[in-house]
């Protein structure tokens, strides 16, 4: 299997590419590595690729409208560039911020299959979450038309030290525990995703029986 990872220079990209290189041919695509999806021809990277793992985006949840739109345009450009190639599967890094999960947590509710997509307004008035929702829609429309498998991974929080976010005063917010995604669980999800067929979306968090109902949580062993 030949795998293209966009945004491969970021934290998640480095974790995934290092793990998958042991078993697969991995092609890394990142602006910091000299290839900008929005301004450079990237078709050369797509030749013979089976699976795209799409991570390229500004990961700051407080992005402004212009930055959010750029995240959408990056995905549009990738879709356009891949049209002439035999891609079998796209794994898209979405975000748990497509939900107002903090509001649910504070009200004692859970994320379920009935929870509507409603961007988390606590971060940048929902611009980041709205962009993720639109990118999911673009990939779903494209993959349905082309009969390509699509896995939208609504990722929780992945931190450099593989721990929930610790505040300056040392305490940890309840939400940080609920949406934390350990490195080892992230890698399990990606490896299982390489065999995924169909079109689906899952929330990716490490904690079981917490905020996220099993009906929408990626099925980890």
What does this protein structure show overall?
With 221 residues, the protein is an alpha/beta fold. It is built from seven helices and six strands; from the N terminus they run βαβαβαβααβααβ. It has helices at residues 11-20, 43-46, 65-82, 101-106, 127-146, 174-179, 183-193; strands at 2-6, 25-29, 51-54, 89-95, 149-155, 199-204. Strand 1 (2-6), helix 1 (11-20) and strand 2 (25-29) form a beta-alpha-beta unit. It is globular and about 50 Å long.
| Beta-strand residue fraction | 15-25%
Distance between the amino and carboxyl termini: 24 Å
User: Regarding CATH, which class?
Assistant: Alpha Beta
Task: Briefly note the structural class of the backbone.
Answer: alpha/beta
- The main sheet orders its strands as 2-1-3-4-5-6
Biggest sheet statistics: 6 strands, parallel
Helical residue percent band: 25-40%
Reading the helices and strands in chain order gives: EHEHEHEHHEHHE
What is the average per-residue confidence, as pLDDT, rounded to a whole number? 96
Question: Given the structure, what is the number of helices?
Answer: 7
Radius of gyration: 17 Å
Q: How would you name the CATH homologous superfamily?
A: NAD(P)-binding Rossmann-like Domain
CATH architecture: 3-Layer(aba) Sandwich
* Count of domain modules: 1
Q: Which geometry do the CA atoms define?
A: globular
């Amino acid at each position: 299997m030949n795998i293209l990872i966009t945004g491969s220079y970021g934290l998640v990209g480095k974790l995934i590419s290092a793990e998958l290189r042991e078993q697969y041919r991995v092609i890394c695509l990142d602006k910091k590595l000299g290839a900008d999806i929005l301004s450079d021809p990237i078709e050369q990277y797509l030749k013979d690729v089976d699976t795209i793992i799409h991570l390229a985006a500004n990961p700051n949840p407080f992005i402004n409208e212009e930055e959010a739109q750029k995240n959408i345009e990056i995905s549009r450009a990738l879709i356009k560039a891949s049209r002439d190639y035999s891609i079998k599967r796209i794994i898209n890094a979405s975000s748990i911020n497509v939900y107002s999960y903090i509001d649910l947590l504070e009200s004692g509710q859970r994320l379920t299959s009935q929870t509507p997509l409603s961007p988390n307004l606590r971060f940048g008035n929902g611009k980041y979450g709205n962009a993720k929702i639109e990118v999911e829609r673009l990939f779903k429309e494209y993959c349905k038309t082309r009969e390509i498998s699509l896995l939208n991974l609504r990722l929780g929080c992945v931190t450099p030290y593989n721990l929930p976010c610790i505040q300056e005063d040392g305490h940890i917010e309840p939400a940080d525990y609920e949406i934390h995604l350990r490195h080892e669980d992230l890698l399990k999800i990606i490896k299982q995703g390489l065999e995924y067929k169909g079109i689906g979306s899952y929330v990716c968090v490490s904690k079981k029986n917490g905020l996220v109902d099993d009906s929408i949580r990626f099925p980890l062993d």
